[in-house]
Automatic annotation (TrEMBL):
It is a peripheral membrane protein. Cell division protein that is involved in the assembly of the Z ring. May serve as a membrane anchor for the Z ring. Belongs to the FtsA/MreB family. The lineage of its organism: Bacteria, Pseudomonadati, Pseudomonadota, Gammaproteobacteria, Chromatiales. Self-interacts. Interacts with FtsZ. Residues 10-196 form the SHS2 domain. It is found in: Cell membrane. This is Cell division protein FtsA. The keyword Manganese does not apply. Its main location: membrane. GO terms for biological process: FtsZ-dependent cytokinesis.
Length: 411
């Protein structure tokens, strides 16, 4: 089969604690991204999103990339990759500059954003992403398109996302060992938002909760911009460990039991439903009720959701989240989790699955691929951005044409 060598190809590499997913998308003439290849591999060598074994991580990435290349019929040379871990944090910052020509131009915007990013960051941290939230001209707040407006002084409010230098270097090293270049490292709390959130939700206010294997990433949006991010070092792997300990079964079997039979609410688990539980060593199989399993899983998820609720309270944006909560990520597919989350948050909750792309149905229906699809959408936007670290676009239909006009009007 002939290999593709198409400049319209986009590649997103989601390096998770439990699974590595490589997605290949093609930018179509109708301004849509079509998923044409996908490769997954069990993640070996990461703990809570951070590389702890270089060789194992390289092998896992290589397998996922090779599978994606085979399906898409292409050679992958560079990727947009996600970076996760509880070392990632965010902080607000402000910048200001005089408007030299009395009318805001591109140079003024670049200058005010450079001033906003000039903040003291610890030596072991680096800036991963900068998101403009709003501009202010002579005290007038809430401006999103400052270019062409008149005034004397331009100010910018931004959110700076930082991460550990060592964590970023190790991710880049692992990808480089696979013969690939890193186009951009995207913080995990932001990646999934590009594929699962709508513009109306971001305007109204929404809290995105991405529950992965090693970490749970939180991103709060209000008034069309991201306002807060956080990472909680508890996620699906802790649920698996609880099942393994409580049911006295090997971890690999506990993971399968979680995926196939677990439920986050005991009232939704049929008491008469039984499951087979492999024992440790050569002991015989045991049969336990599904309700017993739910009594193990439910409290852990409730603890996790309560930590998210407390972080939302501390952020000061809870009252602005009128659009409710969106759960995504591989560990968000649990039966009963949406109902449990509504009890914890006392607001509407929905499951976030990838949107704004076409192609494989398995990708569109599965929140596991939310981050990978978000990386593809962001990669498409970067085709038109001179400074990709300053983009704050959303995953919308008609991506390319909208992105062109957005950058012409904003940056």
């Amino acid at each position: 089969m002939a290999r593709r060598n198409d400049k319209n190809l986009l590649v997103g590499l989601d390096i998770g604690t439990s699974k590595i997913a490589c997605l290949v998308g093609e930018l179509k003439d109708d301004d849509q991204i079509e998923i044409i290849g996908i490769g997954t591999s069990p993640s070996r060598g990461l703990k809570k999103g951070v590389v702890v074994d270089i060789e194992s991580t390289v092998t896992s990435i290589q397998r996922a990339v090779e599978a994606a290349e085979a399906m898409a019929g292409c050679d992958i040379h560079s990727v947009h990759a996600g970076i996760a871990g509880n070392h990632i944090s965010s902080r607000p910052s402000n910048g200001s500059t005089p408007i030299k020509e009395r009318e805001v131009n591109q140079a003024d915007v670049d200058r005010v954003l450079d001033n906003a990013r000039a903040v003291a960051i610890p030596a072991d941290q680096q800036m991963l992403h900068l998101v403009p939230q709003e501009f202010i001209i002579d005290g007038q707040e809430g401006i999103r398109q400052p270019i062409g407006m008149c005034g004397v002084r331009l100010e910018a409010r931004v959110l700076i996302v930082t991460g550990a230098v060592s964590a970023a270097q190790n991710i880049r090293k692992c990808i480089g060992r696979c013969g690939l270049e890193v186009d951009y490292l995207m913080p995990a709390p932001l990646s999934a938002s590009y594929s699962v959130l709508g513009e109306d939700e971001q305007e109204l206010g929404v809290c995105l909760v991405d529950i992965g294997g090693g970490t749970t990433d939180i991103a709060v949006f209000a008034d069309g911009a991201i306002r807060h991010t956080a990472v909680i070092p508890i996620a699906g792997d802790q649920v698996t460990n609880d099942i393994a300990l409580a049911l006295r079964t090997p971890t690999q079997h506990a993971e399968q039991i979680k995926i196939q039979h677990a439920c986050a609410l005991t009232q939704l688990a049929g008491g008469a439903d039984n499951i087979e539980v492999p024992s440790i060593g050569d002991r015989p199989l045991r049969r336990l009720s599904r309700q017993t399993l739910a009594e193990v899983v439910g409290p852990r998820y409730e603890e996790l959701l309560d930590l998210v609720r407390k972080d939302l309270d501390r952020s000061g944006f809870k009252e602005l989240v009128a659009g409710g909560v969106v759960l995504t990520g591989g560990s968000a597919k649990m039966q009963g989790l949406i109902e449990l989350a509504e009890e914890v948050f006392h607001m509407p909750v929905r499951l976030g699955v990838p949107r704004y792309v076409i192609g494989m149905d398995e990708v569109m229906r599965d929140p596991v691929y939310a981050t990978g699809v978000g990386l593809l959408i962001y990669a498409g936007q970067n085709r038109f951005a001179k400074r990709p670290e300053l983009t704050a676009g959303r995953g919308l239909k008609g991506l390319v044409s909208r992105t062109r006009s957005w950058f012409q009007g904003n940056f």
